[in-house]
Design a protein that fits this description.
The chain is an alpha/beta fold and 338 residues long. Helix content is 35%, strand content 25%. Strands 1, 2, 3, 4, 9, 13, 14, 15 and 16 form a 9-stranded mixed beta sheet that branches. Strands 7-6-5-8 form a 4-stranded antiparallel beta sheet. Bound molecules: S-adenosyl-L-homocysteine (SAH).
Length: 338
């Protein structure tokens, strides 16, 4: 079985998939994401998009979309922070793209005060300005892995031996798309990853942003041009074996931001920016100081730790990166550079 088929089944099988059957977030779940760490994350991102909307002439109708909204916390924090931005909420058509019915129900509750619709995928978003956010969405998309072998590639696949799943390599075959990209830097035996569904999603977003205005912020862990095996399973806040108990742990892989950027035309893409730098530029520290004034004791300690966790280079600040997509005649969204 190909790894992308395995990942898709483990994560989104209708009755046994990881996301389809549970709410995996938070201390009681398996992992914690940035919006679940602190409300400040969504607040500064909301203001970033609202300012970018304002800079583009405050169009009176636009799609405010989120890919893979989890518990709906990020969207809820973005909306609270932008409540007083004149005209922003009236103009926004809030649209969520979420594959898990269990999480859709959680999102419905979190966003109860707002009018929200769900779309099946980006290709069904309306033809109008699009302001989009995706935090830890692309890392959940299924990947394929290939090991360089002579003039071709051997695909890493999953097979069964006795009662256990194991990894093995398929026959050597040419992979024209990969050979072009990796001829220079992948040596014999090196493993490269490819996420076949990422580029079509980026293209759909870019076409709308380029034609109708708007912008997109893609935040995830990963780097420019992936090399090596980054498939990982996390369960109960610990690394686990990706092949053990399929459907019971979160499976992700690092995002190859170069592959995303290459699919960005006709949009421009920003410099890949560490999350910590981006959040600092958006003013997370003054926001943290202002919130801190109302806190004491343990709550204050937790708040300071949350700020550090989101921004510090040894925590999420460097591991997570931000890529902006924007109309090529404009400056990138606030906090990013061309
Ligand atoms: N953005 C949230 C959740 C990240 S987890 C946060 O930061 O907390 C990944 C999210 O993407 C989950 O909501 C998951 O159900 C959703 N998801 C995964 N694959 C998807 C797909 N192919 N289409 C739509 N949603 C998907």
């Amino acid at each position: 079985m190909r790894i992308d088929d395995y990942m898709a089944t483990c994560l989104l099988h209708p009755t046994m998939g990881y996301y389809t059957t549970r709410d995996p977030f938070g201390q009681a779940g398996d992992f914690v994401t940035a919006p679940e760490i602190s409300q400040m994350f969504g607040e500064v991102l909301g203001l970033c998009l609202a300012q970018y909307w304002f800079l583009q002439g405050a169009p009176e109708k636009f799609t405010l979309a989120e890919l893979g909204p989890g518990r709906g916390t990020l969207m809820s924090d973005m909306l609270r922070a932008t409540k007083s931005v004149t005209g922003f909420h009236d103009a926004a058509q809030i649209t969520l793209i979420e594959a898990s019915p269990a999480l859709q129900a959680v999102q419905r509750e979190a966003l109860e005060p707002y009018e929200v619709t769900w779309a099946s995928d980006v290709s069904t978003l309306p033809n109008q300005p699009l302001y989009l956010i995706a935090n830890e969405f692309f890392d959940a998309l299924p990947i394929r892995q290939f090991v360089r072998s002579g003039a071709g590639w051997r695909e890493r696949q999953i097979g069964a031996e006795a009662d256990e799943f194991t990894f093995g390599l398929g026959p050597e075959a040419p992979q024209p798309a990969l050979s072009q990209r990796y001829d220079d830097d992948a040596q014999d035996g090196d493993l490269v990853e490819d996420c076949p569904s990422a580029a079509p999603i980026i293209s759909e977003i870019s076409r709308r942003v380029a034609s109708f205005g708007g912008g997109a912020l893609i935040i995830d862990y990963g780097d420019w041009r992936s090399l090596g095996d980054t498939l990982q399973a996390v369960r109960d806040h610990k690394m686990s074996d990706p092949l053990a108990e399929p459907g019971q742990s979160d499976l992700t892989a690092h995002v190859d931001f170069e592959a995303c950027a290459l699919a960005a035309a006709p949009c421009a893409y920003s410099r890949l920016t560490p999350q910590g730098v981006f959040l600092e530029r958006l003013g997370i520290t003054p926001r943290a100081q202002s919130l801190a004034k109302k806190l004491t004791g343990d709550a204050l300690g937790q708040h300071i730790a949350a700020h550090r966790r989101l921004t510090h280079p040894e925590e999420m600040g460097n591991l997570f990166k931000v890529l902006g997509l924007y109309p090529s005649h404009l400056q990138p969204p606030p906090g990013l550079e061309p």
